[in-house]
Structures
1.
Amino acid sequence: MNAVSESAYLLGHASQEHMRLIRQAETLAPHTSRLLRLAGIARGQLVLDIGSGVGDVAQLAAELVGTSGRVVGLERDPNALRVARRRAGEAGAAQIEFRECDLNSMRIEGQFDAIVGRFVLMFLPDPGATIRRLVRLLRPGGVFVSQEPAWSMFYPACARLPLRAACGRALCDAFIQSGARPDMGLELHAAMLAAGLTEPRTVIEVPTTTNAHGDQWLPDLLATVRSRTGAAFNGGEWLEPMGTLSERLGREVDSAKAFAPLVPLIGTYARSVPLSLHF
Ligand SMILES: C[S@@+](CC[C@H](N)C(=O)[O-])C[C@H]1O[C@@H](n2cnc3c(N)ncnc32)[C@H](O)[C@@H]1O
């Protein structure tokens, strides 16, 4: 399968998934915020956030652009949009506006200083084509920023953590079966060049479980995937009982005296050609 239709979107649109996204976002926030700053997102800018989910990346961008800037978040799941709007309201982020939009068939106009996205290109049927369409919405010299996973870089970090590595493998099998790209991060540099963006820069960070939600991250993801794929999920016996997985992952890390990696994040940013270089 090479198309990720709405019904085939592996992680689905249940409210439990929205809660999972919020917990995951708390762990990823410092990594994404650093990337957005490096890419030059700053006060007063107009930013487009693609695949907003429940709005966490849009909120990080809103902090950087301040009240003189604006963030437009695009998301196709109306339930996620409701949660995203409510949370932005509670955070007092009046500079964020969320719009319902399918990135595969979007009709958006405007000239943005920056386009940002996290963990979304991996779910699109043709991420390269989507980047090419989005680049037309950047002002000359504007920046495209993406943060996506590189699951194949997860396993070396789990050399002494076989249970953790097995969780990763089960997730990746499910991603691939659904048509998603677990190594999307490794494709970003070439995709941005192919879209006419210049001088891509990449930062790679491996988050580790340092907050209360960290140990829950893999069991959370596996529970979502299992609830979506049911019997087809190639989880293995080690998964059971799922209720103790988080504790078992914690014990494995303690006895190996290892750090506990989340998936490596590839953050790539590149600029559209500035006006002075247009002939
Ligand atoms: C893994 S979530 C990430 C959400 C958010 N960017 C974050 O990092 O918290 C991916 C989001 O992309 C959305 N999405 C997937 N395919 C999409 C499409 N074709 N158009 C718009 N949104 C899409 C999903 O509905 C989901 O909310």
Note: The two ends are 42 Å apart (CA to CA).
2.
Amino acid sequence: MSDICKNWTEWLKKNRFAGQTPEMIEQTTKWLEAVRDVILVYAEIKPYETILDIGCGTGLLAFKALELQECKGKVIFSDMFKDCLDDCKKILDESGVTEGYEILQTPVEHIALPESTVHKAIMRSVLVHVVNKQPAINEIYRVLKPGGKLCAFEPVIRSNTRYWEILDSDYIDRYEDFKHAENEIMENPLDSLCNFDENTLRTNLEIAGFSIPEVKLQEVRSSYVVQENMVREWFVNPPSPNQPSTKQRFLRYFEEETVEKFMAQVQEYLTGRTISLKTNAVFINATK
Ligand SMILES: C[S@@+](CC[C@H](N)C(=O)[O-])C[C@H]1O[C@@H](n2cnc3c(N)ncnc32)[C@H](O)[C@@H]1O
């Protein structure tokens, strides 16, 4: 577990920008801040409220919530992994913040808090790492006070642009086989990254007891020119520390040599081309 913990903070600092040019990193950072701000607008944070950041990671949401509350109230930095929390604590200590927060190591599936104790639960990209989403959403509902809100963002990976959509079948060996494998990978019900969409999340929220939850689908289109070596970065960097990389996923279907050849052909075909990618996500605003 400790390895995974360490890897999470490392991943958040480095891997989430893997394969990106400095301009793309700047764009991603701005986008993360924009997502954070939407979640916090939904949350309508007020002084003296208790705010729970679930899966806080390196504190993207929690630090801003703390700033908005001016330490009048309580922001709970919670995460399953200690290294993330140690990282946040270090920043809090270095910034001289001594009150208005609590650190809580807990999984979202069993939140270590009594029921009806939290005014707002905020969360970004956490359910996407949880295979069984219903028990996690039930837990969030349990710890919220009546009238409390869950405000969250989750990427909906299974409806993102797939590799086969931006490739040319005449150029890539075994194009149909790779297309078939990719479709299976992206629709695997046991894979936390791909086993949900906006409709399944809405159903999960309703089953938990949230009344008429708002689940807004956002489709973002981004275009950029593919650089040398970008494809290897896409393929070998894991989507999270405890998940196989795209290359490892394809290795369940093909020999190493075949996957390497595919990667080389994808790189060759895409280098210098402008590609347009669709990434879907949802914003959740649900009241208990
Ligand atoms: C993609 S990161 C997002 C971090 C942070 N919310 C942000 O927006 O930068 C996912 C976070 O969820 C945490 N996490 C993963 N599975 C979890 C679980 N079952 N319960 C609680 N936290 C979890 C990880 O430790 C990690 O910090």
Note: The chain has one domain: 2-287.
